[in-house]
Amino acid sequence: MTRAPISNSPSPEPQFTPRGITPTEEQRDIQTCRARHVIAMANAGAAKTTTLALRIAESITRGVWPESIVALTFSGEAARVLKERLIEIGLDEKVVRRIRCETFDKFAQQVLRDFEGGQAPILDSYDAVAPHVRAAVTELKAQNVLRRTPRELSLPEHNEQIFEFLTIARQLKARLVKPQLEDGESFEEHAESLNLPVSIFLLFCQLEKDRAGYGDEPLWRAEFDATYDLACLLASEDCQIRPPLFRIVIVDELQDMNPASYAVLEYLLTQGKSFFTGAGDFDQVIHRWAGADVNFIRTRFAQGWQSVETRPLTQTYRHGPIMALATAALKNKEVVSGRNHETRILVESYADQRAAAERVAANVLDWKTRGGHLDACAIILRAPYQSILIENALLEAGIGWRVEGLESYLLRSEILMLRGVIAFALNDYESIPGVEKRLKVLQALLLWQQFEWGANRLDDAALKTAAEQPDLFDAFLKGTLLKPQTRADKQAADSTSDQETEADFRFLEKVSALRKSGRHDEANTLANLRRLDAETIDETPVQRGARMRLEQTLAMLREAPPDEPAWSVLERAVDMLALKKVARQIFIAPSTAVMVARSIDGFIDGSRRNNLSLRDFAIWLRKAEVKALKLRASNTVLLCTVEAAKGQEFESVMLPCLEVGTFPLSGSDPAEESNRFYVALTRARDELTLYIPDNPARVSPYVKDMNVDRAISRGRLQIDIQFG
Ligand SMILES: Nc1ncnc2c1ncn2[C@@H]1O[C@H](COP(=O)(O)OP(=O)(O)OP(=O)(O)O)[C@@H](O)[C@H]1O
């Protein structure tokens, strides 16, 4: 980033006066700055988003149409927070709705939809993209065999490898790498120039070719593909696409910028001759896997732009000096607070995870007793699996909670599937309340039993009917889950029950027409072939294994002594079903498979409470679910991931499980983990509670780095001196 000196020309007096805050000199300067390009890189809570909102409000007050302003971010959450800040500082909600405020990718999707005249399906997870990767692998292998000298290819087969490939592909797209060769270049040479194995580059090219299809629009887009496609189109020589242009362009979370998003931004700025203001924080990069690159911002961003001014925002207004000192120690940088407030930092030690969860619930109640609002309190987790014990503790304490960035554990597919198994074993289908929930249980069972049903069939009325009626629920077990799949089942895997009935009808008509015209042999052959399809077992070894395991597990559960504790039978069931191994087969991301395994452990651990039998545990689960729903109807505390908390702030923040291996999470990028911790802790306005194990050797190094005691004593001194 080019750093031009701050211009000497004084900024004009602001015309917009915000509600609720008095902008500092620095904020006013950015609000009214005359420079065409203004950039502010600053600490967490240093009012970046607020200042961008002030800049937008100032433009509108000076007569700019809200429709000619676009505010782009890299996460939906950041776009939501920016809109929230615009309203907080006093812009009318109706005016805010007229401003285009969304992620780069949503913006690109809309532009492409208008250009292409339709929306290509969006595949929103790696799991949804994986079948396309497998198809591309098959195609590449087939092509390779036909080569005069086949290459030695090493292509992804297993989920972990496919996940790794998709992550590489995403990074290539962030870098705007095209699936093409330069003139006269070989694939080998090009792959080498990208520092990639040739097999991976070939697969990247093949997948992109498949995605492009033969029409004007691609067959599908994964997350970020719209940004990539738009950037490629804009860079093409015969560029036909004309994205809308805006007078004012705002970008929040600049640290997440990558070359593809930058190409879109540059187009908007050059073609629209727009005024640009951007803000970000180098220490909040937590999406490196998706191509976010601090070096890009530091070295290439704004290169060649005229009239670029970097402006400071030196003080954090979110929290007081104690927190500022603690974050400064953590990140080894200067952090100054402009808030005269003793943000409390509390450190609580725990003996085990259950005790920690109970302390979290007790502290939430205490927060409420001291006059705090539940919805101003957030429990931020490093990983979703950590929610199980906390959800149980909140439930026990009668505290309602809502979730962001994770699903309540009772709704996660691995837990739904286990609940289905319990319901089948006990023949107690009512233990899962509500048709919707039972449908989800059936869908989860199909996923875990590795049925390759298409979306059509999974959402079909027939499955919904099975979820409605107890006898059909049982028939589903016997007639689908425990029955070996046949060739006919496979053929119908993607059709709805209506389509199946229609196919049956057409078949009968055909046979009858043949008979009527005396072609009995043909009619018989057709009928025999159909019978053969219905009788021929056609299941993969994996599917057969899953079916046998389910059968044996149900038998084991039914034969278990009725008073045997649930945790003990469930442990055996999880082993027999080989769930942790199956998780690795089903989920593309290795980290997801690990989380699922931990989630299952947490579920079993949760069943240890009160030593309930399996039947009583099923009853407890049903009651828990009903109670959780009721509690959710009132005020709720937020249970969320760090990613979901980014950009938000809360009066009270609780960070459980700050131990070695959990935060930083083992196997994760250390630099990014440190940033993640920084993001989590800097969400707090008034109170931060850190939960650490009572064994000092197991305490997260980040907590040690914060040097809390020193921050408290120095911070108090600072409050006395600075604010009197
Ligand atoms: N001039 C001011 N006086 C007092 N409080 C302010 C002022 N400007 C902003 N704030 C408050 O400071 C807090 C942090 O602001 P904001 O969310 O804009 O920071 P940020 O830098 O975007 O944070 P993050 O890095 O987490 O995205 C908010 O509560 C906001 O209302």
UniProtKB/TrEMBL annotation:
Class of the enzyme per the UniProt entry, highest EC level: isomerase
Record InterPro entries: DExx_box_DNA_helicase_dom_sf, DNA_helicase_UvrD-like_C, DNA_helicase_UvrD/REP, P-loop_NTPase, UvrD-like_ATP-bd
UniProt region (Disordered), positions on chain: 1-26
Coiled-coil intervals: none
Signal sequence range: none
UniProt-listed Enzyme Commission number(s): 5.6.2.4
Compositional bias ranges of the Polar residues kind: 1-10
Catalytic activity: ATP + H2O = ADP + phosphate + H(+); Couples ATP hydrolysis with the unwinding of duplex DNA by translocating in the 3'-5' direction
Keywords annotated in UniProt: ATP-binding, DNA-binding, Helicase, Hydrolase, Isomerase, Nucleotide-binding
GO molecular function: 3'-5' DNA helicase activity; ATP binding; DNA binding; hydrolase activity
UvrD-like helicase ATP-binding domain residues: 21-320
BP-aspect Gene Ontology terms: recombinational repair
Binding site for ATP: 42-49
Domain UvrD-like helicase C-terminal residues, every copy: 314-647
Family in the record: Belongs to the helicase family. UvrD subfamily.
Protein name: DNA 3'-5' helicase
Organism name: Zoogloea oleivorans
